[in-house]
Amino acid sequence: MEYDVNKIRSYFPVLKQQVYGKPLVYFDNAASTQKPVQVLLKTGRLYTEFYGNIHRAAHYMADKTTDAFESVRDQVQQFIGAGSREEIIFTKGTTESANLVAASFGEQFISPGSEIIVSEMEHHSNMVPWQLNALKRGAKIVKLPMSRNGELQTSLLSELITSKTRLLAVTHVSNVLGTINPLAQIIDAAHRKNVPVFVDGAQAVQHIPVNVKALDADFYAFSAHKMYGPNGVGVLYGKRKWLEQMPPYQGGGEMISEVTFEKTTFSEIPFKFEAGTPNITGVIALGPAIALLQETGMEHIAAWEHQLLDYCTHQLKELEGLVIYGEASQKSGVISFNIDGIHPFDLGTMLDKTGIAVRTGHHCADPLMSYFNIPGTVRVSFGIYNTTEEIDRFIEALKRVVKMLK
Questions:
Q1: Taking a C-beta distance cutoff of 8 angstroms, is the pair 235, 93 a contact?
Q2: Domain definitions of the chain by residue range
Q3: Cα(63)–Cα(52) distance, rounded to whole angstroms?
Q4: pTM of the model
Q5: CATH 3.40.640.10 correct for 40-294
């Protein structure tokens, strides 16, 4: 099957615009992706045809909305290879998913003296919740370090994991380095000592095939807005054996079985963790985003984006004074770099004037920036609609900007 990038681009009307009189090149996909017409039309159809609150009413509009909402739970289960639909919980995003597990799992299983292993390359959303929990419960954060090429030192896990370890938190794909971590190996090492693993999959599910059952992940979280879906929606996969033991994260409607002034009993999973009215529209609009990824084929997407990664990396390495951070043997479509003598913010600002959108800053990964002793980087990140022609424009613009700034 040939990858038809022009057909894919036709689904994204936003890409046809100009910025400062230049055709838009959008290379900030690791922060958030653009939305295809399928998602936009689904949102409009919901509000104009059958919107109602879910699970709670006995009328046509609510029933139809509930069916649409719950069908996406089935779709997510199939997309990530979960064992059952009850293991799929809808949240606001990866950040809330991490906070949910940190609070709820932490309340049940983490006590004074416990240890939580967190990798050195984590986004703040997969680091700060564990720090807060450790502070609250008298536990300790243990660092899983990485090497200069951006690979985790997984050989150290055998000594880092002790009888005090209660959980290991790790990203599947680094949002800064693009490193694809050897997740199956990491999970196996943890499970050999009966330690569960929480995986931040926010930078993975839209780029590479993911099967949580094959990986044997205990928890796996990701966000809709990074996979061509709407804002304000996330997914938390959790193994049933953990979810059933964990107390509710929030209280309110939907997550209860029975309420009296004396006590409350709770719903079964997943509803135990879905208090209140959810982002109904967002969840339903996630459906066509997943369908687009499935129709395109995750293997084809991974191959196309790897081609873009190689093409861009080769050209960047020819530029004098340019340093790339993260050159792991297994990478996704993310390149973070600096150029000697030029602040990354200045580069990003000037590139924007040529119509090219990149990210600059610490990328919510301060410990990783500290490791490399840098204030931030310029980050280029690819999506399903990007092309080699856009990379050529980016490289040409980058050369002009560097010449101006130096």
A1: no
A2: 5-30+297-405, 40-294
A3: 8
A4: 0.95
A5: yes
Pairing relation of β-strands 22-23 and 18-19? antiparallel
Question: For residue 335, how many C-alpha atoms fall within 13 Å in the half-sphere facing its CB?
Answer: 24
Average pLDDT, stretch 241-265?
71
**Cβ within 8 Å of residue 155, ≥6 positions away:** none
Under DSSP, the state recorded for 268 is P
Domain 5-30+297-405 indexed as CATH 3.90.1150.10: yes
Q: Distance between CA atoms of 179 and 152, rounded to whole angstroms?
A: 9
Question: Active-site residue 312, yes or no?
Answer: no
pLDDT reported for residue 249: 86
Return the exposure string of 289-321: e unless at least 16 CB atoms fall within 10 Å of the residue's CB, then b: bbbbbeebebeebbebbbebbebbbebbeeeee
Which one-letter DSSP state was computed for residue 169? E
Q: Looking at the predicted structure, is the pLDDT value of residue 106 above 70? A: yes
Q: What is the mean pLDDT of residues 233-260?
A: 82
Q: Letter for the amino acid at 197? A: V
pLDDT at position 265 over 90: no
How crowded is residue 15: how many other Cβ atoms within 10 Å of its Cβ?
Answer: 18
Q: Which of 364, 367, 371, 392 is catalytic?
A: 364
User: To the nearest whole number, what is the mean pLDDT of the chain?
Assistant: 94
C-alpha span between 406 and 123 (Å, rounded): 32
Token reading at 334 = 């993310």
